[in-house]
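Problem 12. The chain below contains 57 residues. Write out its predicted structure in token notation.
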Amino acid sequence: MATAVNVKELSDKHQKLQELIETEMAHSAWDEMRVAALKKEKLRLKDELERLRATSH
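Solution.
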């Protein structure tokens, strides 16, 4: 059950990062370094989600 909770939490964080990226890029003078860092974190979360989902089956 803990794995399902972890997956839900990571999924929520992943979605919030996507929203942050979209918000940042909506500005005309968006910060490439910030967006790159957010994308890197989002990818890390995606990898972790995939790992958790693979081990829960």
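Discussion. Residues 25 and 32 are 9 Å apart (CA to CA). Students who got a different answer should revisit the alignment rule from Section 12.3.
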